[in-house]
Amino acid sequence: MDICFDKCAKALDYAIKNKSFGLFHSTENTTNTSIHTHECCEIFFCLKGGNNFLIDGRVYDAEDGDLFFMNQFEPHKITFLPGKPVERYVLQIHPDFMLHFSTEQTNLAECFYRKSPKKCNKISLNHEQQSLFREYFSGLEQKYDFADDVIKQSIAMQILAQFNLLARHLNNDKETIIPNLSLQNALGYIDTHFQERISLETIAQNSYISVTQLCKLFKENFGTTVLKYVTGRRISEAKKCLRNGCSVSDTAMQCGFGDYASFIRTFTSHVGISPGKYRGTV
């Protein structure tokens, strides 16, 4: 059961195709330049080199030994410190896998779909906890002579069980670190108005800075552009709408896309299938 891959996209594809899980382990200082969502829940173990982690409108300081988690509707993107050694594990887990192995007493997907208004996507681990999770992820990379699939499924369930236990004791008051007030204002404005037609000028004006300053802040802190962030936020909301049974045309209107054709093109580019096909698969 080979569930370890040299590309995050391959781990994701495997998890989706098999409704299981896939692991990506890397020491390369490269990331996706766009904020994105995907059809699996994700556990991101930042071993070293992290900088800022943007998740669903919240910004976290990514320190060595931190765990991050997000569901398939939460747009996210990490940046790494330039010129510094980097290492991370990324575990992609299909929701059906967690559903299959959950029981009446234990919901393995609990932490991914929490409803708290102060939800937190970060768990800071102590040294003992870091060693435990390193052992877990390393175990997924091994090849076992007998019962390889059973052992790896068991490890994945241990990760989820331990992970949910830690998530229940999060201090949500310390969840977010916004680099500065202007950036906080920009994120807040976009989150409130992304369903409307908004421009760089409007976002900058409501953040009390110039367009040039706004673009520079996003590039420096998130490694992406303002417009890519807005698009990612809209795609995330569109997936929720389609999952809830909204028509493609209504979804385009509700999520701030300029026209129907633009929505079809943008959604297909980001998700990999058309919104009509996506709606039919959920």
Write a brief structural summary:
With 282 residues, the chain is α+β, with helices and mostly antiparallel strands. The chain is 46% helix and 16% strand.
Q: What secondary-structure arrangement, pairings included, does this model have?
A:
Layout: E1 4-5, H1 8-18, E2 21-26, E3 41-48, E4 50-55, E5 58-61, E6 66-70, E7 76-80, E8 87-93, H2 95-101, E9 122-124, H3 127-141, H4 148-167, H5 181-193, H6 200-207, H7 211-222, H8 226-243, H9 248-254, H10 260-271, H11 275-281
Parallel strand pairs: 1-2
Antiparallel strand pairs: 2-8, 3-6, 3-8, 4-5, 4-7, 6-9
Walk me through what this model shows.
The chain has 282 residues and is α+β, with helices and mostly antiparallel strands. It has two domains: 4-174, Regulatory protein AraC (Jelly Rolls, Sandwich), CATH 2.60.120.280; 181-281, Orthogonal Bundle (Arc Repressor Mutant, subunit A), CATH 1.10.10.60. The protein has eleven helices and nine strands. It has helices spanning 8-18, 95-101, 127-141, 148-167, 181-193, 200-207, 211-222, 226-243, 248-254, 260-271, 275-281, and strands at residues 4-5, 21-26, 41-48, 50-55, 58-61, 66-70, 76-80, 87-93, 122-124. The strands form two sheets. Strands 1-2-8-3-6-9 form a six-stranded mixed beta sheet, with helices on both faces. Helix 5 packs across helix 6 and helix 8 crosses helix 10. It is globular and about 60 Å long. The two termini are 27 Å apart. The mean pLDDT is 90.
